[in-house]
Amino acid sequence: MTRSGAQGMTDHAGIPLTHGRPRVNGVDLHYATGGNGDAVVLIHGVPKTMFFWRHVIPLLTPHYTVVAVDLRGFGSSGRPATGYDTGTLAADIAALMAALGHDRYRVVGEDWGAAVAYAVAAFHRPHVVQLVFQETRLPGLPVPDLGPLAAEDPRTGWHRSFFGLPHYPELLMAGRERAFWTYFMRRIMWDPSAYTEADEDEYTRGLEETGGNHAVFELYRATETDAAQNRPEFAVPLECPVLAVGGRAYLAAEPGEQMARVAAKVTPVVIERAGHNIPLEQPDELGRCYLDFFRTAED
């Protein structure tokens, strides 16, 4: 059943998006779609849902058919025990887009969704027109030295070590999802107030449902699998154009530096007055960057 936050999402004209939940690649995958034109699929990160894109979608729908998706284990999608490596998650997306009749499409991902988006572009190359890789580090690539950071700054990777442990994160997180993730999400933003009560409600609701925490931590536990899957693809750089986006107050130029290692045509962009959650902090500027980039494939 579609949850309330996602139900309220609209296109540029205020028309509610159309929702579906087909079974693809062995999982019931929830999507919402609206607009007209060539297809763009939006992939969220952790601990989010498609609701994270609600401010950006109306900027795209006048020009493109937008497909926002809840990754398996998140939102209103199915919550199987396994399948949280980025290769499988990418296969989910490719199967969904095929089921919707989209043979060629643009892929936009942020945070863990960007790692999934890279996997779509790498493992399903004939179908991807352009890739947006936003605010993440790609499994399999080295992590740069960012200099001294506060010990609990997520850029140190402390949370990756914790979340990757078996069993303990689920035991410790149960019943504390709202407090933990609200602090975590605001800690990594330039403008913490952009993470609103509606965001708190949406993501906490999903995490508290059966299997919600498990899906988050299984993503992290699959990191070494992701890296092993990705490394052979690095030898053949992506040919589709890539927009690499960072928030000045978080990863900044790092996404561009990462994509320069694995793709032939990379346009790096750093969004000012933004941290990790750019679609909440600077949606208008982000939407303009997307549209400018998308139009380069139409010239």
TrEMBL record:
GO molecular function, one term: hydrolase activity
InterPro entries with a match to the protein in the record: AB_hydrolase_1 (IPR000073), AB_hydrolase_fold (IPR029058), Epox_hydrolase-like (IPR000639)
Sorted UniProt keywords: Hydrolase
AB hydrolase-1 domain residues: 39-161
Keyword Hydrolase: yes
PANTHER family: EPOXIDE HYDROLASE (PTHR43329)
The protein's name in its UniProt record: Alpha/beta fold hydrolase
Organism: Streptomyces kaempferi
